[in-house]
Amino acid sequence: MFAERTGYIIWVSDVKAARNLEKYGSVHYISKRLQYVVMYMDAERAEDTVKNIRRLSYVRKIERSFRNEIKTEYTKAQDKTNFYGM
User: Which UniProt keywords apply (predicted)?
Assistant: First the structure.
C-alpha cells in the first residue's frame, strides 16, 4: 500500500538552495539556524538519489536516519515505585 521510506539528514551550506531538494524526495523540515534538511525518500531508490544529492555544491554531509530501526514495542510493564526509592 505505502512505499517504504528512508529518512536522511542533509547538512547544507546554503538554506535557500536547499529548497531544491524537494525534487529528490519529500522535505520534512529545514533548519535555518543549524543549516540542515530532514527529508524522506523511497527506500528502493535511496542509494541512487543520495549519489545525485552528494554532487550538489551546497551539500556538506549526508547522514541516514535510524528512526525506523528503533524499537517502539515494549513487552513488560514495570512498577514505577522502584524508580522513586520506595
Answer: Cytoplasm
